[in-house]
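Troubleshooting log. The previous structure file for this entry was overwritten by mistake, so regenerating from the original sequence record. Sequence copied from the archived sheet and checked twice against the printout by T.R.
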Amino acid sequence: MPEGHSVHRLARQFGDVFGAATLAVSSPQGKFAAGAALLDGQVLEHAQAHGKQMFLYFSHDHVLRVHLGLYGAWDFGGDSTFTGASSIGAPRRVGEQEIADDSGTGGVGGYTGPPEPKGAVRVRLVSEHGWADLRGPTACEVLAPAEAAAVRAKLGPDPLINAAGDADEFVRRIRKSGTGIGLQLMKQDVLAGVGNVYRAEVLFRLGLDPQLPGTSLSADEAQALWADVVALMNDGVRDGRIITTELADRPSGLGIAVGRASGWRDDGGGRPGTASSVNREVPVEDAHYVYKRNGLPCRHCGTVIAMAELGGRKLYWCPSCQG
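Regenerated output below.
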């Protein structure tokens, strides 16, 4: 399941390539035919992400809500103008990861329109310059603006929105429950957008025991947790991948130090020499402290990284650094 940084990049991509365009909307699969009919011929006014959900706001007070879930993904293609700030080349697929388009249908000359749908395409959006196909989402529905607002109101604060008061609201929510913080960070009504990778990594970076009850977490610790998630997820938006290690902790020595250590922000386009392009060269084995490193030595103390099931997901941590 894509974490919040990918969905925010996706919303930015939709705004860049479809914003203010009149779209032809269809449901090749047929399961979304009624919803597609409501949106067909309307203008996409703007796109917003909240946590792991995306909201596409169309004219005539219609909102398309999409939650990709475990199996959903978008495919894109179009002419040479069909790229945006979140593109890696022209993205062919945005789901669990973004893949540069080498298919000959996106971001190249000779574009003649979208190809025949492949597989079970729930929704197809088509503009003058390109197309996007959605497959396998957990949720896909047309809402009124008030209904979309009600859905968002049930979600916790989003670190990538980081609106006034969000930090304090997160502190209040996580500290009011005796549930362990490792489980709480995965609850979208506590913190919207964090998934298994960010959960494991931020707890390690702050030396917090995943089993620590929220009621035992100090206000300062909760504020530090919020600040680190904000920094790491913004780096994820920039880089198009999750990198949580500092440069000194990467055996390869590749990449630019992340987060507040780098002080670098770019538009996510990955131009040569930017933090975004350099960090994409960081090997997977150097990118994380504990996530999927069970059985390997901790980068800081050498203790073997542990793994256990928690809330139906795998939790990774260092028993010494987070004891």
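The first strand starts at residue 24 and ends at 26. Archived copy saved in two places this time.
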